[in-house]
TrEMBL record, chain A:
<keyword id="KW-0637">Prenyltransferase</keyword>
<keyword id="KW-0460">Magnesium</keyword>
<keyword id="KW-0808">Transferase</keyword>
<dbReference type="GO" id="GO:0004662">
    <property type="term" value="F:CAAX-protein geranylgeranyltransferase activity"/>
</dbReference>
<dbReference type="GO" id="GO:0005965">
    <property type="term" value="C:protein farnesyltransferase complex"/>
</dbReference>
<dbReference type="GO" id="GO:0004660">
    <property type="term" value="F:protein farnesyltransferase activity"/>
</dbReference>
<comment type="similarity">
    <text>Belongs to the protein prenyltransferase subunit alpha family.</text>
</comment>
<dbReference type="InterPro" id="IPR002088">
    <property type="entry name" value="Prenyl_trans_a"/>
</dbReference>
<protein>
    <recommendedName>
        <fullName>Protein farnesyltransferase/geranylgeranyltransferase type-1 subunit alpha</fullName>
        <ecNumber>2.5.1.58</ecNumber>
        <ecNumber>2.5.1.59</ecNumber>
    </recommendedName>
</protein>
Automatic annotation (TrEMBL), chain B:
<feature type="domain" description="Prenyltransferase alpha-alpha toroid">
    <location>
        <begin position="99"/>
        <end position="476"/>
    </location>
</feature>
<dbReference type="InterPro" id="IPR045089">
    <property type="entry name" value="PGGT1B-like"/>
</dbReference>
<comment type="subunit">
    <text>Heterodimer of an alpha and a beta subunit.</text>
</comment>
<dbReference type="InterPro" id="IPR001330">
    <property type="entry name" value="Prenyltrans"/>
</dbReference>
<dbReference type="Pfam" id="PF00432">
    <property type="entry name" value="Prenyltrans"/>
</dbReference>
<keyword id="KW-0808">Transferase</keyword>
<dbReference type="InterPro" id="IPR008930">
    <property type="entry name" value="Terpenoid_cyclase/PrenylTrfase"/>
</dbReference>
<keyword id="KW-0637">Prenyltransferase</keyword>
<dbReference type="InterPro" id="IPR026872">
    <property type="entry name" value="FTB"/>
</dbReference>
Length: 349, 494
């Protein structure tokens, strides 16, 4: 990129040099000359609120040198919208930059702004796939996909197979597990319902706010069965993988099913009769919850008390503290305290 | 410390010639020295020197990266075990390397100087560079008032007429650099620094960021997430801004709407099925956002009341507790991700807030008596920070294979301070209920010392490796939030 000062196209602009705070300023950067000059022209352009084709060239130039410059992205988006530019073309321009700068998040907000404006999502899921090939847990990319699904009501048959493909590559990819949750349950938790605030104020009297705001009384059994089975299959592949355990526990709690409904399954991986043969600390944790008679945190049904056994719950927690997960020993001890205090209070100990 | 070379990394190097001839010399001179725990019992508990008890055979990208991380941490965690002769003096009686204070100070002072052109990527984060370095320098015992004029000079051109600060001169106002700028100014303190902030404009600008769903955008037209909420509430609370929404705010639907209307509900929607908290509803639970959400709640009210009413606390604690890894000892940000020095604070820093939610307010006129106490491993976190995060030439890092930087230095040292102290929410006198956005001014703290039996429950640093006390919600020097708020309260009008 040549110098702006030598370019007749920019002759009318008086650049505004950077004021980085004078000779005593802290954390000043020895900018390359090209960057200093380009950002001086940006300040001048922004000061006069110019939106033009040359602004697109200038912002592209700066983005090329520093894609973490959030202001330049926002100004570029404004310019594109002012000039009624072809936004699909812009997205195609952005793609290689996103691929080259995996950790950059400004790009994803830019993308979201433009896609929202375009009111179309063609090509977007494909590009997300390409990004995740490079970094399968990229937080911004997954967030963008979640936004996309909600924005365009894409609760269709493409998301579940996509998640399953991602999990086939790496069954421990927790971002993919989170996306599965979102795909299955997200549609029952709308975000745009402003009245939700009022409802939840009342709900807060018996459950924490985060457990409220659902639009469905109870989920179809087949849906919950399918999700439970999916998590269980994943656990069999690698029992010490925490993601499907969290998922399994989440599904049961969301559906209001007692954790004890999966006790025989859990005991395949942790059985108190064979404390030497525990194959998963997460199974042991799960077992402790079952024996503690933990209530599902939401949903209509109540806890299954039939499996409650305080002594066994403590035994599982002791095993975790002493042998299978001792870095968390104070946590396991705290759980044990709660259970024993509760038991003493209710006289079930 | 005047050591010529830091042996931490050489000792960890599995390759070879780690102990040079001078160590043999030392051994002869100090051969009588024995470690207090005796020769037979290990200095470092096996938890931190051996592989996890259960590992699945199925290999995936996640397990490969996790194993690689364990392998790069283990030699550093166990370094004291293999330290021979005089090198033993590089470690304390618990097998922890010393805090390399002088080199860290030098590194952070350097990060406030002229930065090479490669730092162009940090051009939109200069207030952060200032905040991270100042926070570290305070923790390491430096006087921050000496930076007062420089901080004012640096941040003045970044303040915009709309009230917020940009990441640099001419950048749009954004809550993240505004948070860093405001905190840096109040840390150096003084009338000129505190007067620099245009509070009336800042208040109007926060009103522009407020959204109808209760949350905050990070900049006008930017993304909405819990960072936006936390940073905005820190600013409003410290600067004693009016609670009411300015009439110019598009989020204002009723006269009674305030900066915190719907905020609790918004944060509640960010809790995920795992129990952790995401940057916004639907997304994956993440340590950084858990801290932002919890700290934001603690700015609003009594932690016990507001956290329990807003979040499913047992699930939150279950998720948070799982983020601490062994043998590494440090925290990861998400399920099945890797430990990273910065999550020592983002995830680790949730603990004092959660503990306050469990303990409840301490008796206003009685002795401090927490009912629950610590439920994470302070020992593990201390080991990760001191063994794995310290760079050879000063500065702290994500993990041993990464370079040091000011960001990781800041959050690793903040977390080190947190491991060395206990924090309590004190509440207020019964006749003086908490007013909105003043709850965070009612905390107390104490250094962790030997317990009443003279025994240490968990190994802690030597006295010389203590760092200063930091506020668990504002993340600035202890005492500064209160004096800042009082200064603005004493000032009439906006």
């Amino acid at each position: 990129m040549g110098s702006y000062a030598d370019d007749s196209k920019w002759a009318d602009i008086v650049p505004i040099p950077q004021d980085d705070g004078g000779p005593n300023a802290l954390a000043t950067i020895a900018y390359p000359d090209a960057y200093s000059e380009a950002t001086s022209y940006l300040r001048a352009i922004m000061a006069k609120n110019e939106f033009s084709d040359r602004v697109l060239e200038l912002t592209a130039d700066i983005i090329d040198m520093n894609p973490a410059h959030y202001t330049v992205w926002l100004y570029r988006a404004k310019t594109l919208l002012q000039l009624n530019k072809d936004l699909r073309e812009e997205l195609d321009w952005v793609n290689p930059i996103a691929l080259a700068h995996q950790k950059n998040y400004q790009i994803w907000h830019h993308r979201q702004l433009l896609t929202d404006k375009r009111n179309a999502y063609d090509g977007e899921r494909e590009f997300i796939g390409e990004m995740l090939d490079e970094d399968s847990k990229n937080y911004h990319v997954w967030s963008y996909r979640q936004w996309l699904v909600r924005r365009f009501d894409l609760w269709d048959d493409k998301e579940i197979p996509f998640v399953e493909e991602m999990l086939k590559r790496d069954i421990r990819n927790n971002s993919a597990w989170n996306h599965r949750w979102f795909t299955v349950f997200g549609r029952y938790r709308p975000l745009t319902d402003i009245k939700h605030t009022e409802q939840s104020k009342q709900a807060a009297s018996f459950a924490p706010l985060s457990q409220t705001g659902r639009t469905i009384e109870s989920y179809p059994d087949s849906l919950i069965d399918r999700e439970v089975a999916f998590a269980q299959e994943a656990i069999k592949l690698a029992p010490q993988n925490q993601s499907p355990w969290n998922y399994l526990s989440g599904v049961l709690r969301e559906a209001g099913r007692p954790l004890a409904t999966v006790k025989p399954f859990v005991e395949q991986f942790a059985n108190l009769d064979e404390p030497e043969k525990v194959r998963s600390s997460h199974a042991l944790d799960f077992l402790a919850s079952i024996y503690a008679g933990e209530q599902p945190t939401s949903g209509p049904s109540s806890a299954d008390e039939s499996q409650k056994d305080v002594k066994k719950a403590c035994q599982a927690l002791d095993l975790l503290a002493e042998k299978y997960d001792p870095i968390r020993r104070f946590y396991w001890g705290w759980r044990k305290d709660i259970i024993t205090k509760e038991a003493r209070a209710t006289g079930t100990a | 410390m005047d050591r010529d070379e830091n042996k931490i990394e050489e000792l960890s190097d599995t390759s070879a010639e780690t102990i040079d001839a001078s160590d043999e010399e030392d051994e002869r001179l100090f051969g009588h020295q024995q470690h207090p725990t005796g020769a037979d019992s290990p200095l470092v508990p096996p938890l931190f020197t051996s592989l996890p008890p259960i590992q699945d055979s199925l290999e995936t990208e996640t397990s490969q990266l996790q194993n690689r991380t364990i392998q790069e941490c283990l030699p550093l965690l166990a370094a004291a075990e293999r330290a021979a002769g005089g090198a033993i003096f590089d470690f304390n009686p618990y097998g922890l390397p010393r805090l390399d204070r002088e080199r860290h100070v030098a590194f952070l002072q350097g990060s406030l100087g002229r930065l090479p052109s490669g730092f162009v990527a940090a051009d939109a984060s200069r207030p952060w560079m200032v905040y991270w370095a100042l926070t570290c320098l305070y923790l390491l015992g430096q006087d921050l008032a000496q930076y007062r004029e420089e901080v004012i000079a640096t941040l003045t051109p970044m303040q915009n007429p709309d009230g917020g600060f940009g990441g640099g001169h001419g950048h749009y106002s954004h809550v993240a650099p505004s948070y860093a700028a405001v905190l840096s100014l109040v840390m150096v303190g003084g009338d000129e620094a505190l007067n620099l902030i245009d509070r009336k404009a800042m208040w109007r600008w926060l009103g522009d960021l407020k959204q109808r769903d209760g949350g905050f955008q990070v900049c006008v037209g930017g993304e909405e997430d819990v960072r936006g909420a936390y940073c905005s509430m820190v600013i409003a609370s410290l600067l004693n801004l009016p609670l009411e929404l300015p009439s110019t705010s598009s989020a204002k639907q009723n006269d009674s709407d305030t900066l915190i209307t719907g905020l609790r509900e918004y944060l509640a929607r960010c809790q995920t099925f795992e129990g952790g908290i995401a940057d916004s509803p639907d997304n994956e639970a993440h340590g950084a956002f858990a801290f932002c959400a919890l700290a934001c709640l603690c700015l609003m009210d009594d932690p016990q009341k507001i956290i329990n009413e807003t979040l499913d606390v047992p699930r939150l604690i279950s998720w948070l507790s799982s983020r601490q890894h062994a043998p590494e000892g440090g925290f990861a940000g998400r399920t099945n991700k890797l430990v990273d020095g910065c999550y020592s604070h983002w995830a680790g820093g949730c603990w004092p807030l959660i503990q306050a939610a469990l303990d409840g307010p301490m008796p206003f006129d009685g002795p401090v008596a927490p009912t629950v106490g610590t439920i994470y491993s302070r020992e593990g976190l201390t080991r990760y920070i001191l063994c794995c995060c310290q760079g050879k030439r000063g500065g702290l890092r994500d993990k041993p294979s990464k370079h040091v930087d000011a960001y990781h230095s800041c959050y690793a040292l903040v977390a080190l301070s947190s491991t060395q102290h206990s924090y309590f929410y004190m509440g207020t006198a019964p006749d003086k209920p908490i007013t909105p956005l003043t709850a965070a001014f009612h905390w107390a703290s104490s250094p962790r010392v030997l317990d009443s039996n003279g025994e240490i429950q968990e190994p802690i640093c030597d006295e010389e490796d203590r760092v200063k006390l930091i506020h668990p919600i504002f993340v600035i020097p202890w005492g500064v939030p209160e004096t800042t708020r009082a200064w603005y309260e004493a000032k009439s009008g906006l």
